[in-house]
Structure formats: C-alpha cells, structure tokens
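Q: Second attempt. The first request was missing the SMILES, so the protein and calcium ion are both included now.
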Amino acid sequence: MRKIVLLFCLALCVGIWGQAHAGTIYMEDFEDGVADGFTLNSLWHVTQNYPLGGSYALGFVQGETAGSTPNGNFDTGATVFGTAYGPFISLPSAPAITLTLGVYNNGEHSAGTYPTYWDQFNLYLYDVTGASTLLASTSQQGVGIAPIYEEMINNLTINLTLFAGTDIQLAYSFNSGDSIGNGYPGTRVDTISITTGTVVPEPASLLLLGSGLLGLAGINFRKKGRG
Ligand SMILES: [Ca+2]
Ligand SMILES: [Ca+2]
Ligand SMILES: [Ca+2]
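A: Got both inputs this time. The predicted holo structure:
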C-alpha cells in the first residue's frame, strides 16, 4: 500500500513539475488587432478577413470584405511581393522548443500531385547575423521544410530546438512572381506560438513538490508509529 501511495505522489509531483516546465515564450494571435513588433510592407496587414482563429489574422490580400470567406485578392495589376517581419524573440536554452502556427495560402498554381506554384509563400527564420533558414514553403521541398498545401488551413508544428539559446526572427514572405493570375484570396497567418520546457522550476511547483515530500514523510511516520 505504501509503495502505491509513494508511486502516486511521485507521479503527481512529476506531473506538476512537467506542467510547470511547459511554457509559452511567444504568442501572437492578432486578436488585439495589432501585429505587435512586426514590420509590415506591401499588402501585409492585420485583417478580419478569413482568420484561422478568433476574429483577426495577418493577411497578404487587398480589397477584402470582412467576413469568414477568403475573398479579396492580391491583383494590383503588377508583380506583388512582400515580407512581414516578426519581432526578434529570445529562445531560452531549453531541451525542446516548438513553433506552431496556422497558414492558409490560395494563389496561382497548377493542378496535379506536384503542382507548379507561381504565387508562393515561404516562412523563414533569421538569426542575428541575417542568415536565413527556410522553415515552411508552398513550393520548395526538402528536409526540415514543412510543406504548405494550397486552399486549406495548414496547422504547422516546427521544431526550433536547434535554435535554443539564440535570438530569432520569423519572416512571412509572399511573392506573386509575375503580374498575371493574381486574382486569388492570398495568404493568412494566425495563432503563432512558441513553447518550451524550462530548466528552472517555478516557486509554486517547488512548494507543491515540497509539500508532497512532507506528506510522504508523514505517511512514513504514521506507519512506523503504528508498528
Ligand atoms: Ca497582437
Ligand atoms: Ca486570430
Ligand atoms: Ca500570379
């Protein structure tokens, strides 16, 4: 019986410990109507048109009617391209760091198993030296590059553990490449989150861990007293 109680308490402590260690270090869902810390250019803006979560998203599109359908387009009559640069984010030295976000892209592309994409979206990561890593793409395949499929919401999960302990910047890049076939609903990015485990336990979980150990000591004491 004592072993069972002990195991239960240990499981509880580990559970609390684990929860306390899973932390959000960055979150942007655009629900305050502001892309905080972003540098936006070209057609990139916070939009109420077709958010992937809540009421607002980041979009590369123009002439929208606010609503839940992907209307509007990026047809300005010329080649359009632009990058939305997010803020620099300091990643802690943690054993696991994960980026999750939603991406919707609807641009000019051919049909088939391996389509040609004339209107392309790419997600890049920049380090402080300006070196870039391609994290996700509509049009480029490769190891470590998450595919983005057209005309559907892509819920991406990207491992950033490689960049633990460094400052990074995420960059959301759209390029029509040409001036034709641009009457499409464009791109939406939403619910960008970076989570990590931390190596330093929070005071609250230490307190719980401490009281758990005291509880164990109490059980031990009572058992001995009765025997
Ligand atoms: Ca915001
Ligand atoms: Ca949102
Ligand atoms: Ca085009």
